[in-house]
Specification:
Blueprint lengths: L1 H23 L6 E6 L8 E7 L17 E5 L5 H14 L8 H4 L4 H7 L9 E8 L2 E10 L6 E9 L8 H15 L4 E7 L3 H9 L3 E2 L4 E2 L7 E8 L5
Parallel strand pairs: 6-7
Antiparallel strand pairs: 1-2, 3-4, 4-5, 5-6, 7-10, 8-10, 9-10
Length: 236
């Protein structure tokens, strides 16, 4: 039964990613992606699919309505869920991240697995996922870079469009802030694209203030990313 449940979840996650990619398509765009064969459970690329306006594997848009969400910490066994949710975020909100869908879609499974290994990068991390009705709808990471253990960073913050307005992003910030304080951190830092008014407003309301000059979102991008910081109670 456990295997059947995981397979069903993987299929629904795949459809969710395809839906997000469909929203990016237009008659002028032509996206080619590797469709993952989640049904087999081996996460290997199965085939290529050309996505154009009006041409896509039929998927149903999920309406989360009044569904409750829960936030939990990702564990090593969740690497496939993490992989698909991260790719969904990059496809849905390409202007919110320094990385890109095209780059991370090429990562081998070992890369995604290592990110959640407690003896590797995850030993100083708090990888969080938000779920509605068992489907991941949000992602965020708290991370401390050694040797600077006084600062916790927020990365990969994203909430699916269908699940926005439910307080998920605010809950992510609350969880990461509490985690950082428990670790003895003195501040929490993040960076936000300056044109993302909703995100900027959220961070300001959570006590973050601009820190330093805005920077390129990524090399060659016209978008700017503003570093922000929130000082914690542990600060002298």
């Amino acid at each position: 039964m456990r295997g059947a449940h995981n397979k069903s979840l993987q299929v629904r996650l795949t459809r969710h990613l395809l839906l997000l990619l469909q929203k990016q398509a237009s008659p002028q765009t032509h996206l080619t992606l590797n469709v993952l064969k989640f049904v087999s459970g081996d996460m290997k690329p199965a085939r290529s699919l050309d996505i154009r306006a009006g041409f896509l594997i039929p998927v149903m848009q999920q309406d989360y309505g009044m569904s409750e969400f829960r936030i939990r910490t990702l564990c090593p066994e969740d690497w496939a869920t993490y992989k698909l949710t991260r790719l969904a975020s990059l496809a849905d909100s390409p202007d919110s991240f320094g990385s890109t869908y095209e780059r991370e879609a090429l990562f081998p499974d070992s890369e995604w697995q290592s990110r959640l290994e407690p003896t590797e990068r995850a030993k100083n991390a708090l990888p969080l996922v938000a779920e509605c009705d068992g489907i991941p709808v949000g992602l965020s990471w708290g991370l401390v870079h050694e040797p600077d253990s006084n600062v916790a960073h927020v990365y990969q913050m994203w909430v699916s469009p269908e699940a926005r307005g439910k307080g998920i992003a605010k809950s992510f910030l609350g969880r990461i802030t509490a985690w950082a304080e428990a670790r003895g951190c003195e501040s929490v830092a993040l960076s936000v694209t300056t044109v993302n008014d909703a995100a900027v407003s959220l961070y300001c309301s959570a006590g973050f203030v601009p820190s330093g000059e805005a920077e390129e979102l990524r090399k060659g991008s016209a978008l700017r990313s503003q570093p922000m910081v929130r000082v914690l109670r542990n600060a002298a």
